[in-house]
Structures are given as structure tokens and as C-alpha cells.
Design a protein that fits this description.
Structural class: alpha+beta
Order of helices and strands: HEEEEHEEHHHEEEEEE
Number of domains: 1
Low-confidence stretches: 9-18
Radius of gyration: 22 Å
CATH topology: Lipovitellin-phosvitin complex, beta-sheet shell regions
Shape: globular
CATH architecture: Roll
Oligomer: single chain
CATH class: Mainly Beta
Length: about 300
Amino acid sequence: MKKNLIFTLIYSCLAQIAIAQTTTLKLNLEKGKTYFQRIDTEQKIAQNILGQNVDMTQTIGLGYKIDVLNKDSKGNMTWKITYNTVKMTQESAVTGKIEFDSEKSTQVDASNPLGMAMRALVGQTLEVVINSLGEITDVKGTEQMIESMIEKMGVTSEAQKQQMRESMKKEYGKDAVKNSFEGSFGFYPEKPVKIGDTWVRKAKKMGMQSMVLENTFKLLEIKNGMAKIEVNSKISPNTEDKNETKSEFSGKQTGFQWVDLKTGWVKDANLKQDLKGKVNFQGMDVEMNIESNIYIK
């Protein structure tokens, strides 16, 4: 009886110690190694254009290859990022069905500008400097990437080229790239955490779906070298976005992500995002409700 009581007390103490132990979560990729990530976003978009309801479904998949070129003593890494796969499907009663999958074909109908842009993205590269908290401190190569995409799309008119440059900067310019990758990697806590701890990190998005995400993360579990993290985000308009195409979105995001403790690499993530707002096209407001499922592997 006494032995059982002693074992129970010991087990209870060990369990309490395990719960109280802190874990350092940080981005810690190895110099010279190559990592791959794919982000798939499935969306249901309800739009109201001039009083008419226009529903659309959209799936966009982006695959990245990340080569770690350098890493300093403080953990700052230089990455070469290559967009190696792109998949896009869009369908509505107005446009019909538009598809492109770089893993199946490189052919795109010239009447499909979105598909042409997606095809032009494949193989493009840029460099970023990122720290152990997932913060981007430098971006190089965005202007060259935009010029290369325009050339691949076969645009010859200087007026059209300039128009496309301005449009593409919203999605692939220096600030847009910084915000995009910080949205994926900028979740690490500034100090060690234990199971049950929460921390808050903000992220910004620019372009057609401009917004600010106030992300609250919670460490739920550590098992087999992986950390399970809960994500709850409050989404509000990005008032700092100065793009001509104005967008205002509010909503929420919930989900989970599984992170490798050694490298800080996101092995898996499932997120659900609900947005309500509007986009202003040349003085015309288009109201939108967007439901998104986001998968990261």
C-alpha cells in the first residue's frame, strides 16, 4: 500500500515537472540544407457586384523550395526561395472554370491572364534574410522576379508592362513578400514557453486581401519531437496599405500547426479563415464573404 502511494506521488511529481518544463521554439534551419513547403488554400467567395450575387470557388497551391545559403552566429539565415510548383483552379458562373497545374502542363490559354501569371511564377527565385523569430529583415530580387514574369507572359507593350509592374508589386513586391513569409513563419515566441502558455504575434497581408492578423498561439502538447500549437486570430483591416485597390476585411482564423522542435519547421498546419468585407475597384465597392481552408505541409 505504501509502495503504491510512493509510486503515485513520484509519478505525479514527474508529471508536474514535465508540464512545467519550458521549451524554446525558434526557426533553426541548417546551413546548406534544402527544405520544401507547400501551401494549399481552398476558398468559397460570395460577392455582390452591382447588386448581383456572384459566387466563386478558388483553389491556389504554391510549392516552395528553400535553400539555406548562410547562417550567422545569431541565427540569422539567408534563404534562396524558389517557387517550384503552382496550382490554380477558379470557377464561377461568369468566368466558367479556369485551371492551371504546373506539375501536369505548362500550357495556358492566352485568354487566361491569371493562369498566365501563375505559369510565369514557376521557377522564379528571390532571397530573404530571416531571423530565429521568423522576422524578415531583408528581401532581394523582387524587381528582377517581376520583370522576368512579365517577359514570360509575353507582354510587349511598354504601357502594359508598366501597368503590370504596378499590379504585381501588390503581390510580389518587397513589402508584400516580407509580409507573406512573415505570415507563415512569424509565430515563434520571444521567450521559452511551457505547455498551456500563450503568446501574441501580429502579421500583415497586402494586396487584394489586405488585412492585419492578431494571432494568439498556445502550446498544447509536445510529443515525439513535435510541438502542437493552437492558433486563434482576430482579423482587421490593414489601414497602412496604400494600394490604389482598397480592401477592408474583418473576421477570424482558427486552427492548429505541428512544429519540429529541432528546426522550428512547420511540418503540418490546418487553418480555417472566415472573412467579411469589401474591395474597392476604381471607385466601385464589391462586398465579399470569404471562407478559406489553408493547409501547410
